[in-house]
Amino acid sequence: MWLFLKESSVYAVCMNGFGIQGQSWYLSPWFIAAMVALLAAVCIAGVLAYRAGKRRGLLEAQLAERDRMDLARKDAVERSRSVLSGQLSEQIAPWLPDFPVNPSDARFIGKPIDFVAFCGADEGSVGEIVFIEVKTGRSSLSTIERSVRDAVVQGKVRWVEYRIE
Predict the structure, then answer these.
(1) Which of 90, 112, 132 is the last residue of a domain?
(2) Which of 24, 76, 92, 153 has its CA 20 to 30 A from that of 83?
(3) Rounded distance between C-alpha atoms, residue 73 and residue 79, angstroms
């Protein structure tokens, strides 16, 4: 039992010889020093592991943020291209094949719909008024565009003459 001092062991044997029951738990100073050093090493290792984990987590978060930013940039560029190509398509649509009216009768508005065509205006007499929304790819009508479509389909269109004198 190297953990106990020899004197302590002798003391315990002597006490037992006189009929006194007792044990001495006197630990060696070297054992105490070793335990304190071990405890200090465990604490230091824990702190270092915590800091390393925190730093790794921060680095992983930064990398993930970079990836999200890259994806967001790519998405923004793709959307911008789509918007620009859609705007260009709206401007040249009357001169493309299968446009539903005579291009000279169409007037570009842009918002909330793209064109209003006054069919026959080029010949001198309007026979029909057509609202035209140009779409490209998989784009769909916006809420306001749907509401304009529904108003026209339901006949909720009127004429107002506004005079300024």
Answers:
(1) 90
(2) 153
(3) 10
